[in-house]
Amino acid sequence: MDIPAETRAQAARLRDQINHHNYRYYVLDDPEVPDAEYDRLFRELQTLEENYPALVIPASPTQRVGAEPLAAFGEVQHAVPMLSLGNAFSNDEVCDFGRRVSERLETGDVEFAAEPKLDGLAISLLYESGVLVRAATRGDGVTGENVTQNVRTIRSVPLHLVGDDYPRLLEVRGEVYMPKAGFEAMNQRQREAGEKVFANPRNAAAGSLRQLDSRITATRPLAMYCYGVGLVEGGELPDRHSAILQRLKSWGLRVCPDVATVNGVAGCLDYYQKISERRSSLPYDIDGVVFKVDRLNQQRILGFVSRAPRWAIAQKFPAQEALTTLLAIDVQVGRTGALTPVARLAPVEVGGVTVTNATLHNQDEIDRMDLRVGDTVVVYRAGDVIPKVASVVVSRRPPNTHTFHMPEQCPQCDSDVQRSEGGVILRCSGGLYCPAQRKEAIKHFASRRAMDIEGLGDKLVEQLVDADMIHDPADLYSLNVDALAGLERMAEKSAENLLAALQTSKSTTLARFLFALGIRDVGETTAQTLAKHYGRLDALLHADIDSLQEVPDVGPVVAESVVTFFRQPHNLDIIQKLRDVGLHWPNVEVVSPEQQPLSGKIVVLTGSLTRLTRSEAKEQLQKLGAKVTGSVSKKTDLVIAGESAGSKREKAERLGIKIMSEDELLALLEIDV
Ligand code: IVH
Prior knowledge:
This protein is α+β, with helices and mostly antiparallel strands. It has 24 helices and 24 strands. The mean pLDDT is 90. 2-(butylsulfanyl)adenosine binds at residues 83-85, 115, 117-118, 122, 138, 175, 227-228, 290, 309, 312, 314.
């Protein structure tokens, strides 16, 4: 098919524009247009390419979705070997390096390029006339693997260089890595999908890049920073490393924004210190910093030893991973009663910090690693992130270990454990009684919409619980001025006011009291409904699941929570204590179902009402025992048709269902018209 010249030109323009915006976004971190405009350009190019497939070129920005899986990666010979770096583990070793450099160069005045040592994997990119033609891993430094299809899916790697002053052949080197945020999000997705989670961003980057199916790589949040060049033909580069990096940037290649040039060893040590302090807040993982003699002529004088340059060194951070023994798995109870397994570890130094605990997330995570007490485990720490158990060294497992199972009783209070939120979260049902949940429960109990105890703020509740002065809400009522006066920042007057507020709160309503108990899934409205339905607390205490489900708007989940709560002896004890200290409320008048005019009737509201809102009408109807549903069917008993009621009214007429006007409804509800 002939492609009109104008269409060809338009595709080229779009490619240039998209490349330009990629450059602004990824390299300069300074986008020029909103995302929506970028998306529009991208879609326009996609549409052109769909209509004229011959327009598709490998360097088109649309060609990043991955390709058919490979059987194996091909081999790539590096024309210029990819070297490694010597390591320094202390300031002294960096000083030694500086001394060697100065001696060979016969000058004490050396400038260094200082760069974060990115924790990913080294990649070589080959550009021919500005087009990315090959990407390879480092391999053994001489022979690497061809990962072109995978690297093409990384958005921050330009498929075509920007400008026109790049060498005809340019090999760029850098690190492919996974930003911390992307790593956390990806692991979260993997965990939810029940798939493999990665121990750290480096493993995640390596695992993602070494996929034979590049379509998988395309879904992983990889990025790349360039830190040097290899083969260069048909063009000149600047004579300083730092200037080369700037030049790479101008061609659309991403360079880490935290690179710097420093003077002498003192400048190097200062840089190491500054980066160490920023390490945990950097958006990418690093395992140290790299110092490179900046002038290329000095680099040439220094040359190489075996497989590392004499002109560069990596100053490494203390290890972020360590081996240790899993001594026990404890179960912690959080504020909302959620149970989390925690690994107790033989103390081990990880990244300069002694680690004795690590989070294990949940039972699934433990099962996936087949973690057992007594195992030798790899502990990992990234920045200030909570330490994690990354994996188990199964070959070092002692005999007679046992698999671990989350408890069925709360380790803090022995109450039953319930599974919630899709079965992933285990929760203690102890509520008020469980010490771990006590503070939150008491705060809730005292809150405005519950018992409304004025002057009893969150801070004070925490103080009281920490001082062991209260264990449950009932204890609040045995506080006295003397005890309160001993607390920090508590004047006598405020103590008296608080005691008065406590006294006032004793006279309450059943609904408030039920809400104050903090029963899971029982909010203010449900508490009111329950109060109305049962009238007396004792009736509710003895209600079973079936009876509860007869209450309007109470489904199996709420019914289960209510029954479980009242089945816990501790909760019953606390309720009794509260009654004993004088909490009281009037019984609510209960209308038996038989007495209710709309008991068990299915009612549909349609059209617009003028005197009541939909939800008011619904609530009123429910009070009369009706079940209010959304659509008219043979089962419907009554349709309330407001103004301009349409198809539902017609359907009701067809089915011969009783129809009521708004006025008739108001009369039924005994509301004056
Ligand atoms: S320069 C001849 N610069 O560290 C110099 N390497 O042990 C070669 N790395 O395989 C490397 N960040 O994967 C250099 N800013 C940086 C780096 C860096 C990370 C990695 C790279 C290399 C290894 C060297």
